[in-house]
Amino acid sequence: MTGAVQFRERDDTPKEHASSGRIASTIKDLGLKAAMAGLRVEALRPGSVGFPRGGRHPSNTAPEDLSRTEQPMA
Length: 74
What we know:
By secondary structure, this protein is α+β, with helices and mostly antiparallel strands. Helix content is 41%, strand content 19%. The chain has a two-stranded antiparallel ribbon with strand order 1-2. The radius of gyration is 17 Å and the shape is flat. The model has no long low-confidence stretch (mean pLDDT 76).
């Protein structure tokens, strides 16, 4: 099993280092398992999973941008 992984900063800019091969496959598999576990917990207890500190987050968008997306469709 092989894979390719490139790490990123909290603001989603890529780091220079990238990995490939079995180690990258293991890292990718662990990341996917962690994401699925988070989705399971969130399904059981809505609102229990939060965003990590730093980086971009939907709450950082301007209020006028959110009001446009929340209007009902005609």
